[in-house]
């Protein structure tokens, strides 16, 4: 069965954007706490300044990389294997034979639920690999397909 | 049918020993009070009594087991009851441990492990049971693994026939057998590098010496000069080495390996005889290992990787199937035991590192940080840390030179790596590979290189075997083959 390289649904970019925003908030809170530490416990002023610099830079990088992250994250399912690709600067490709798949888990945090997306984790006997976000229907279909193929593969072996 | 049985009362000793091992720190409490009349003292005594006697006793009383024809059932737990059912077909390894004091009673400890991730502890642990129990388990296990294919319709009466005769007739003649001789055992002990942890323990003890004594020692040492210091250091290393040697000797005493009915059985040990039984088709891979000493002496150690923690207290968490063997006869000796191994040293040049430079650079960068730190903290002594640089460079070169691998057949992949002067050669049946990964950075595109990672199950976790800085075409060839293989 030939199949094409799939990209993640475009809405995932919105979620990555929000998670960058989340990092910003978290880092702001940490910087605030460090400033309090400076104010009351006489910590060096450089600690909160450094944290603040980080607060600005980290979410910017995270947000800036979203188009690349989207562009280079792909998955691919054939009768024999699931393949995932990710990364631009550090590229990786993972191959998981369907015969080795132990279980497929769908889970979604509040953000993914809001966007009607779900994360798909494919676990083997030793490793676990994630597809970061898929449409619910697509994910269900994928799970059925992998589990069906996995069962067939197992029958063949035994 | 069979009623749940308790383990032998001697098993209680084992339970007590385990609680002492787990709660030894409670004994410190005794030192806090010497007043025999105070409530505090008696409170401590009660705690100790409960921790080291009543609790183990309760555990022993509540643990029962049944060796049924279809599964092993273990009931345990004092307040929370556990009922563990282990079907024979799911067992990965059975481990029998026999302490010397159990031998006269024909008892042993039996640990049964499956591939389940759930716990670091074995699925079932029977502290002192007659040795016939393990034989019975083994028997049912072989029935379970062979029956479904051959005698499917007769599943009803096969358990009946299995229970009727004496549990086990004479064990079948092994198809292959190996026993270590004293010369090899001594060689193995002498070339073991566990003297390094022993050395650390000795140094730790040095820290425990009261300051006055230590100062006095240093005073003396400064009078006596450098020769004595070096002499002392050598003596300490020798003591550690001897300790490690004796330790290895007792643990691998009378090592035996045999194969019968598609099972590998490895037995070893003087004070505690440790026997591990693993089915051959459950082996996740074979690892041939050489530390630096053994590389010089052309000796190798062979381990098998299994999907359970059976050998977690072995050195390096693996089941050793051949403690020490000469390079020249490795394959000839091992093939009768594990038949899918190649019959001679294969050619592993398909995957290799063309230029060592990248790994040398990386290891040197890694040590650059501590060197800079040392230089900054102790400017006058910092230059001494420069010695780390050539060591790191050599280490990088070692890693690069020892990276090798090849797809020997569609069923067997061989991968070799070098880490910290230890060479490891893995043979992995391709159907045991859980997943495979190729990674590269954009800079490696220009140099046309890639890293290859092969994931296999090992113990209760994943082992990633990483071959770094391979030629990209070679790495992708293996990866694509794996992705498209039928």
UniProtKB/TrEMBL annotation, chain A:
It comes from Levilactobacillus angrenensis. The keyword Membrane applies. The chain crosses the membrane at residues 15-37, 43-61. Signal peptide: none annotated. PANTHER family: UPF0699 TRANSMEMBRANE PROTEIN YDBS, UPF0699 TRANSMEMBRANE PROTEIN YDBT. Pfam families: bPH_2. Keywords: Membrane, Transmembrane, Transmembrane helix. The keyword Nucleus does not apply. Residues 70-146 form the YdbS-like PH domain. It comes from the Bacteria. This is PH domain-containing protein.
TrEMBL record, chain B:
InterPro entries: UCP026631, YdbS-like_PH. It holds the Pfam family bPH_2. Residues 60-134, 252-311, 420-482 form the YdbS-like PH domain. Residues 147-168 are annotated as: Disordered. Keywords: Membrane, Transmembrane, Transmembrane helix. The chain crosses the membrane at residues 39-58, 185-206, 226-249, 360-377. It comes from the Bacteria. The keyword Signal does not apply. PANTHER family: UPF0699 TRANSMEMBRANE PROTEIN YDBS, UPF0699 TRANSMEMBRANE PROTEIN YDBT. This is PH domain-containing protein. It comes from Levilactobacillus angrenensis. The lineage of its organism: Bacteria, Bacillati, Bacillota, Bacilli, Lactobacillales.
